[in-house]
Specification:
Elements lengths: L10 E10 L4 E7 L10 E6 L3 E10 L3 E7 L3 H6 L7 E8 L12 E7 L3 H13 L6 E8 L8 H7 L4 E6 L9 E2 L20 E5 L2
Parallel strand pairs: 7-8, 7-11, 8-9, 9-10
Antiparallel strand pairs: 1-2, 1-6, 2-5, 3-4, 3-6, 4-5
Organism: Fusobacterium vincentii ATCC 49256
GO molecular function, one term: oxidoreductase activity
Protein name: Anaerobic sulfite reductase subunit B
Length: about 210
């Protein structure tokens, strides 16, 4: 990786894993310095001769960053041609990101639809690893259909310790999960303490 001080110069990042969620949404895990990276930030991912695209961080490890990418344009379509061992060019991070310390001791509610789950995945993982640090937690995640669900394994694992509602807009007959928009489940939200609404945090992304 480049140790350049210039934040506008992309650095090569080797792809070490690819997780295929749907036909058009994959997570690319790359080797990278994560010392300055926070959940909710984004990087510019560039490909020579194709251009660059801003992509949110969907996971952070000691020496890797996850980027969950939807194949919808010239740059992202080309990224989907890349394989493990190939190198992307990244520069960043950009944006303020999420300060996890702000959620300590609060009722935390996250309502997301579709790919918006990616940038808040780090928050959910933080709560999963440290459930005692929040007063309560609720995730409502919605997708178009069962085949469009992202991070299915994560959702299953998170559900073992956290309060999670997974819903889809529509499904074939016989589907046993929740069906309906995320707004259907917002009126069911319950907080531990309604005496001080400023101690409660509602984070909604669509």
């Amino acid at each position: 990786m480049c140790n350049c001080d210039n934040p506008y110069i992309p650095s090569p990042a080797k792809i070490i894993d690819i997780i295929k969620h749907t036909d058009i949404e994959w997570t690319f895990r790359v080797n990278a310095d994560t010392s300055k990276t926070k959940p909710g930030q984004f990087y510019e991912i560039s490909l020579p001769k194709f251009g660059e695209s801003p992509i949110s961080v969907s996971g952070i490890g000691e020496d890797f960053i996850d980027f969950t990418i939807r194949s919808v344009g010239r740059v992202t379509n080309e990224i989907f041609e890349y394989k493990i061992g190939d190198k992307l060019f990244i520069r960043g991070p950009y944006g303020n990101g999420f300060d996890l310390n702000e959620y300590i001791g609060k009722d935390l509610v996250i309502v997301v639809g579709g790919s918006a789950l990616a940038p808040v995945r780090g928050i959910i993982q933080f709560v999963y690893n440290n459930p005692e640090k929040v007063k309560s937690f609720k995730l409502i995640a919605g997708f178009k259909s069962p085949k469009d669900v992202l991070f299915a394994k994560d959702l299953e694992e998170w559900g073992k310790k956290l309060d999670i509602t997974l819903t889809v807009d529509g499904a074939e007959e016989g589907y046993k999960g929740n069906i309906g928009l995320v707004t259907k489940y917002i009126p069911e939200l319950k907080f531990n303490d309604l005496s001080n609404v400023f101690q409660q945090l509602l984070l909604v992304l669509s």
